[in-house]
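step: validate -> pass
step: tokenize input -> pass
step: predict -> running
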Amino acid sequence: MHITDSLRSHAVAPKNRRLVLLAYECLCTFEFGIAVEAFGRADEVLGEPLYDLSVASVEEGVFGAQGGVRLVVDGGLEMLEDAGTIVIPGWRSVNEPASEQLIMALQRAHQNGSRIVSICAGSFVLGEAGLLNGKRATAHWNSTHILAQRFPEVQVEHGMIYVDEGSVITSAGGAAGVDLCLHLIRRDYGIEVANRTARRMVTPPLREGSQAQWIQQPVPQRQTKSLAPLLDDLRTRLTTPMVIEALAQQVGMSRRTFIRRFHAATGTSPGEWMLGIRLEKACALLENERLSIEQVAEQSGFGSPETLRHHFRQRLHTSPTKWRKAFWERAL
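step: predict -> pass
step: emit ->
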């Protein structure tokens, strides 16, 4: 099945599928590998990768990466000129300035309409290029304060795992890059394709950008009951009101212990977690143009269109109607 003919499976290709992944001397191989795995592997239903991925190097010739790896890539910075999306997978150091050639190439690409995505310290390169001025951004939790000091015109979000500002998207460090990549796939192709990618990568399909970067979850002193069965159960009854006392009783905990254990397991409160699950469901339902906004609100657990619209504005900075329109416009 060709991607442009795949409306039957709700996969709608972005206007420019050409994705260029940046490589550089002392490359952060973990962040680089995340992007290759998310964007470069074939989708199991479509039978081909979601993006036309290529790798562009800052330096010429063979260069070194972390872990003793040596790389030869597809080309140089000229490849950024007609990219639909550019991904900067980390950076060798927050104290290492980017070259003038790289800065200029990113600025030109951004002016020409390319989306630019950074993982971890890649946000410092975007800051040097001036592409974060007046925008929100994030980075690894141990360097966000440096990002804020160095680039005062940037609104640094110290706790978020990723921040989507439209044409510029930044993420925190490490595995937060997985969440950012899945977010981009979800934005380009919809919930169904993003969930397939998450399943292949054996990772949760949706962690909102506002989720905390750092979850303090010490190794338990004794075997304790997992909340996983309860979370799975809650996903199947989105229209049922969440009563903390009843949930705590269901797993044999006090209210206080339940809330503490829930936060340790998910990084957020029960109410915030359920809100994220309901938003995920609403986004998936909106990809079905046969359902009315009222039906979407009811089936996703929001109850009314007004409540649905409120949470879309607060969390996704758009409306359900605009979300649906943007998804189906990519089919044209």
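step: describe -> Confidence is low (pLDDT under 50) at residues 1-11, 209-224.
step: cleanup -> pass
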